[in-house]
Amino acid sequence: MSKPIMKTTVQTGNWVKNGVDVTRYTTVIALIGVTILFSLISPSFFTATNIANIFSQSAILALVAIGLCFVVASGGIDLSVAVSFDLGAMTAIMALQAGMGWIPAILLGLLAGAIIGLFNGFFVVKLNITPFLVTLATLFIGESVQKIFTKGGEPIFLTGMDEMYKFLGRGSALLIYTADGGRIDFKFSIILAVVLAAVAYFILTRTIFGRQLFALGSQKEASYLSGVPVKRYTVYAFVLSGVICAFAGMVGSSVLAAYTPLSGRYYLMDAIGAVFIGSTLNRQGQANISGTLIGVLFFGVLANGLNLVGINFYWQSVARGLLIFLILGLNSYISQKS
Amino acid sequence: MEQTTKSVNTKAIDFRYLLKYSGYFAFFIVALFFAIQSSTFLTPKNIINLLVQSSPLGIVACGMASVLIGGGNHVIRGGIDLSLGNNLALNVAVTAVLINGGSSFIAAFGIAFLCSVLIGIINAFAIVKLKIIPLLGTLSMMYLLQGIILLVSNNKVVSVNDPILIFIANNAFIGLPIPIWIFTFVGLIFYVVHHQSVFGNWVYAVGGNPLAARTAGINVSKALTLTYVMAAITAAIASILVTARLSGSVPGVGDIMLLDIMLAGLMSAIFSRLSVPNIPGAILSAIFVGMLSNGFTLINVPTYWVYAIKGALILAAVSITTAQQRRMIRNV
């Protein structure tokens, strides 16, 4: 027997201090750097009101990204988060319109997400098709279904929406009026995102299911041979992703008091970006909740800050792409150096 | 005794021989369905129309396939180029804006082409040198390009009226429109490069196992870099056809094309015995996607339904083929 590998401090040069690998935190440092930069340029950026805004605006993307995290952890990818998002919202809004209460409406919406997840899982697991292709097809089908139900993409507006449903996205968790008439409004959706993130963090890092999900994500064959129910867990990951994204869709529709068809695509690429930026914070490059949330915040801060600084909308996309590119490049440059 | 084994063997070979073509069967069954449903589907005019419609997609699909071949089939770390759609759109925008600004087609397209190659090199640099996973590296490139396209085109429709573009869009050579010739030409080059040359074997080796390929003396970085640059070049070539067909630049072309490009590239595996991406498969998949749009329009399926049926059919084709291929690989 060799010695137990208890404390192997990986000596990779000066970058490792007290066992903390500094190289992995490029994104965090970049997030702090960007925040400081925006605060210096725009006086209204680093105010309580605006910070509440950033958090409230990021909540929905955070929910979608958390859902996606499960699938990415299991070594797959889910492009149909966009469709789960939309169909969850559509089902719930249609149920509300039909006069149902908010609880059955939300449950139906979640069910829609679960069905999409099961559909994806079935094709990935039973027929062994690459998740890219399956979820792409689901994306096509789902977008078409929305067009069929909305006569080509008309939004469904809800007048007199259920108060509880409205509270999901529009309600405030913490509303402070400052002396000078300012309004600091932390939306309820922030709490939803934080609670869900905590639960997802617990599931992914503290339960057998979560650990085995990572195992099958990095070594499918090995985990199969060591008794991980690979197929079942892959399906669970897709179902969780579908359900959580459907929930995100409902929160989104509650913010708008309407269901807008094909709005999920807007979140798709950002969610993928956030999850994978987050994965650079992990030593093994695995998807993780805390990193994902940092990625989401990064997107939120950038969108908000670039607006406040007064940069042209056209330049915002350029700036975003350039910054992500630089961070990723720097991150891998530093970690290769050490 | 000997006879029985022999007969079993021949049977197995026949079986494999058929399964090798199951992707093609799916293709023909769908074509047959359209031919029965609509009398105009199999007319030469419609077939030419269909090929012209699918040529830009087919050209970029070749590029996507070469990235997929070189990157390997890992879902997250495997090769993929999400920037291809917007690379194409950037080319369209740059060409249209420059022509409107008074430069000749050759100059305008030359600059656009250089932009594309540069994008390909940056992608390759990020992936090969900086070791960013392709999905993320090309995703950030996609964001970047989206912004640049908005800046270049000012988010407006830029229409152009250039004699060369009009010539490409409207003229035919030996009975076939110019886009089909360009499509054929690019397809042939990619086929030769990937399936008949040493370089093609290198790329497959790199995709299969980069470490083994390096040990065998293949310049992995060079092979990977070339696949990304080649993909970018296909986007540039396809952009001529798109510019000619739309007679200008329309905002949002790139985002619409991206999913189809991914689809055609990934679906190419069903036309292969071993389920790997390949060039003939990419070309056929692009035509398949074009055929679905064309056929459903001919038999008057409401447009809302088209994408749903498209998605379902693609899933069906892929699942049947994959299931059979798996059975066959187990036999081998």
Task: Produce the secondary structure layout.
The complex is a heterodimer of chains A (338) and B (332).
Chain A: E1 16-17, E2 20-21, H1 26-41, H2 48-73, H3 81-97, H4 102-126, H5 131-149, E3 156-157, H6 163-170, E4 172-177, E5 183-187, H7 188-206, H8 208-218, H9 220-225, H10 230-256, E6 258-259, H11 265-279, H12 289-309, H13 313-337
Antiparallel strand pairs in A: 1-2, 3-6, 4-5
Helix pairs in contact in A: 1-12, 2-7, 2-10, 2-11, 2-12, 3-4, 3-5, 3-10, 4-5, 4-10, 6-10, 7-8, 8-10, 11-12
Chain B: H1 2-19, H2 22-37, H3 44-71, H4 84-100, H5 105-129, H6 134-153, E1 158-159, H7 163-170, E2 172-173, E3 176-177, H8 178-195, H9 198-208, H10 210-215, H11 220-246, E4 248-249, H12 253-267, H13 279-298, H14 303-331
Antiparallel strand pairs in B: 1-4, 2-3
Helix pairs in contact in B: 1-14, 2-13, 2-14, 3-8, 3-9, 3-11, 3-12, 3-13, 4-5, 4-6, 4-11, 4-12, 5-6, 5-11, 7-11, 8-9, 9-11, 12-13
Please give a handful of descriptors for the protein shown:
heterodimer, A: 338 residues, mainly alpha, ABC transporter involved in vitamin B12 uptake, BtuC, two-stranded antiparallel ribbon, 6% strand, B: 332 residues, two-stranded antiparallel sheet, 4 strands, disordered N terminus
What does this structure look like?
The complex is a heterodimer of chains A (338) and B (332). Chain A has 338 residues and is mostly helical. Chain A has 13 helices and 6 strands. Chain A has one domain: ABC transporter involved in vitamin B12 uptake, BtuC, CATH 1.10.3470. Chain A has helices at residues 26-41, 48-73, 81-97, 102-126, 131-149, 163-170, 188-206, 208-218, 220-225, 230-256, 265-279, 289-309, 313-337; strands at 16-17, 20-21, 156-157, 172-177, 183-187, 258-259. Chain A has a two-stranded antiparallel sheet with strand order 1-2. Chain A has a two-stranded antiparallel ribbon with strand order 3-6. Chain A starts with 15 loop residues before the first strand and ends with a helix. Chain B has a domain at 52-253. In chain B, 78% of the residues lie in helices and 2% in strands. Chain B has helices at residues 2-19, 22-37, 44-71, 84-100, 105-129, 134-153, 163-170, 178-195, 198-208, 210-215, 220-246, 253-267, 279-298, 303-331, and strands spanning 158-159, 172-173, 176-177, 248-249. In chain B, helix 3 crosses helix 9, helix 3 (44-71) runs antiparallel to helix 11 and helix 9 crosses helix 11. Chain B is globular, with a radius of gyration of 21 Å. Residues 1-9 of chain B have low confidence and may be disordered. The chains are: A mainly alpha (338), B mainly alpha (332). The interface between A and B is large, with 49 and 49 residues.
